[in-house]
Amino acid sequence: MLFSEHNLALRPAQYGSIEIVCGSMFSGKTEELIRRLKRAQYARLNVEIFKPAVDKRYDEKLVVSHDSNSIPSTPVDHSSAILLLSSSTQVVGIDEAQFFDDGLTEVCVKLANSGIWVIVAGLDMDFQGQPFGPIPNLMAVAEHVTKVHAVCIQCGAPANYSYRLTKDTETVLLGEKEAYEPRCRPCYFGLNK
Ligand SMILES: [Zn+2]
C-alpha cells in the first residue's frame, strides 16, 4: 500500500506503535535507537528525532552515542513540542527520554494512534535505582520493551544499575563518564561482601 510521505492522514493507523529501549548508562541504548532509526531511513521513511533541551553533553543538535555514531536531532523544552513538530513524519525517535516531563507518555500515545512509529530510548532507573521520569509509564503503554545491559565494572556480569561515584545527590547530573559506572545487582547493592 502506497501513502504520501507528507500526508499523515493517508498513513494507515496500523503502522503506529511504541517501542522502548531502556537500560543503565553504558548499555548501548542510544546506539540501538540510532540503529533502528537508520533502518527506517533506509526504507525511505520520514524520521524526526527529539531530545530534551537539558541534554547538552556533546552537541546541541545531534543525538550522540558514546561511540560518536550520530544523527541530527531537535532539542525541545517540553514534550508537547514533539506533537507540534511531528505532523509530517512517519517515525519519531526520542533520546534521553527520562529527562522529559510526564506528558511524554500521552504525547507518544497520540503519535502512535495517528499512525506514527515511535521509538523511545532512556534510562529505566536513576542512580538511586528508582524508576526514572516518564520511562515506567511509557514501558506500560508500549507494544515492545527492550532492556539492554552494560557490563558490570566490578565483576563482568550483565549490569542494569548506574552507580554514581560522587556524593552529589542531584538526579540530573551530566558529564556522565567520570561520575558513573555500570554495576550488576550484587555489586550495586554490595551483596557480595
Ligand atoms: Zn557485578
Automatic annotation (TrEMBL):
Q: Which residues bind substrate?
A: V172, L173, L174, G175, Y180
- Name of the top EC class for this enzyme: transferase
Q: Note the superkingdom of the native organism.
A: Bacteria
Q: Which GO terms describe its molecular function?
A: ATP binding; thymidine kinase activity; zinc ion binding
The residues responsible for catalysis, as annotated, are: E96
> What are its GO cellular component terms?
cytosol
Q: Which residues bind ATP?
A: G23, S24, M25, F26, S27, G28, K29, T30, D95, E96, A97, Q98
Q: Where is this protein found?
A: Cytoplasm
Its primary localisation, in coarse terms, equals cytoplasm
Q: Which UniProt keywords apply?
A: ATP-binding, Cytoplasm, DNA synthesis, Kinase, Metal-binding, Nucleotide-binding, Transferase, Zinc
Q: Where is the signal peptide?
A: none
Annotated GO biological processes are: DNA biosynthetic process; thymidine metabolic process
Q: What reaction(s) does this enzyme catalyze?
A: thymidine + ATP = dTMP + ADP + H(+)
Give its E.C. classification number. 2.7.1.21
NCBIfam families (UniProt xref): PRK04296.1-1 (NF003296)
Q: Which family is it part of?
A: Belongs to the thymidine kinase family.
The protein depicted here goes by the name Thymidine kinase
Give the taxonomic lineage as stored in the record: Bacteria, Pseudomonadati, Bacteroidota, Sphingobacteriia, Sphingobacteriales
